[in-house]
User: What shape does this take?
Amino acid sequence: MSAPPPTSGGEPAWLHPQPHEPNPAPSNPDPTFTLTRSDGTSTTITVADLARLPQQSVPDCTIISTGHGTSGPFRFDGVTLRDLLNAYAVTAWAYADLVSADGFGTRVQRDEVERSAARPILLATSCDGEPLTRAQGLVRLIVPHETEDALRQVKWVAEIQIH
Assistant: This one.
């Protein structure tokens, strides 16, 4: 998967999101995602690969969904973005773009990952002790400190691009 076309300013269009209808299902049934490093090398990662990494729980998370309001609180479990990047030898980076199977995305700054140790940014694979289904995201980015909109809770993570 490649990033969405840039805006006239050269940035991906999803960095300036507009209100949209929520997608009820992923556009692609493939649950793997690609980690693309700043040097252009990439690795395909599966849910099983994530399960082999250290797991973290983050309680009291809410999901603010476009058109659906707020739900939760939930306890999400999975791999912290920091642990994932460390496990795949990503050491020099400024930000990561996380893009879903339907082209929605968000940008996470390195300092944001570093300062969120108490409630870390998570690639969640389960919610309240139950594995996420593909419809729920299967691998879903959870940004616990986001409380105002659904623009950072990326379902169906398909690519992580390191810059």
About this structure: The two ends are 16 Å apart (CA to CA).
